[in-house]
Amino acid sequence: MADQTATSFVTYELKGKVAHIGLNRPEKRNAISDRFVEMIAESVARAESEAKAVVLFGHGDHFCAGLDLAEHVKKTPIQGVHGSRRWHAVFAGIEHGTIPWISALHGAVVGGGLELAASTHIRVADRSAFFALPEGQRGIFVGGGGSVRAARLMGVARMTDMMLTGRVASAEEAERWNLAQYVVEKGQAREKAHQLAEAAASNAEISNYAVINALPRIQDMAKEDGLFVESFIASFTATSPEAEERLRAFLEKRAARLKTPGSA
Ligand code: 1HE
């Protein structure tokens, strides 16, 4: 096995309500092996049990160089299918879990690394980040949900271009392409992601759950079905005890006002 030497490929630290989960195999550019995927799964479960939001980042100079190609080269077709389905299950636990995940991206956000980032809810890239899908060059295909999640973010035309030509996108291009929601200076992504995670963690849990779980599903529904489902989620959340308290706090002027553009 290519990855037997390290004891843990994932670091975990709870900072207040926000779990910081670090991809920690920098000597292999955080390439994800089978064992690494299971460690991500463990950290997802732990964060769900005690955190209100997560910051996902990479140790070393890169976020993640994707699939561990050394391990993959030895797989049979059916092992490949099982491996891909396992990535799907673990990444679905992020995308359709109970708490918001913010990824802090720097260096390589490549192949499976981009697929992992695409399963988080908000992506913050620093100016060192670069995005690529070199699967075509390696003779393989995306297998970590990229054809579904990354394609929905940037569109099939851009993803086709990246996969056919090996095009590498900068952080600024990635923001224009909707692969990143924020671009910050080099070294600032984790701090920005933490601020965003704290903001999200202060929301009503039920609203966050609805945003994470309902929005992507409604996007896949027919218009009328989406509107129908929305009305139930709107009513269910608005009639929760937490909503009542938060609405009262606003009306009684106990809640913070929105920060308007230009305000500190
Ligand atoms: C790896 C991997 C990896 C690095 N699997 N070992 N992903 C790729 O095709 C990206 C491949 N990686 C790279 O292009 C470069 O490594 C980077 C641009 C990310 C970084 O370059 P650099 O110069 O900092 O590092 P390096 O010297 O290329 O790599 C350092 C070590 O990490 C080296 O091992 P060493 O034993 O010779 O020191 C590399 O072999 C190793 N390494 N990336 C295994 N990916 C679920 S389907 C998803 C499909 C995909 O993800 S396809 C995209 C795969």
UniProtKB/TrEMBL annotation:
This is Crotonase/enoyl-CoA hydratase family protein. The lineage of its organism: Bacteria, Pseudomonadati, Pseudomonadota, Alphaproteobacteria, Hyphomicrobiales. Pfam families: ECH_1. Belongs to the enoyl-CoA hydratase/isomerase family. Gene3D superfamilies: 2-enoyl-CoA Hydratase, Chain A, domain 1, Lyase 2-enoyl-coa Hydratase, Chain A, domain 2. Coiled coil: none annotated. The keyword Lyase applies. InterPro entries: ClpP/crotonase-like_dom_sf (IPR029045), Cyt_P450_CS (IPR017972), Enoyl-CoA_hydra/iso (IPR001753), Enoyl-CoA_hydra_C (IPR014748). Keywords: Lyase.
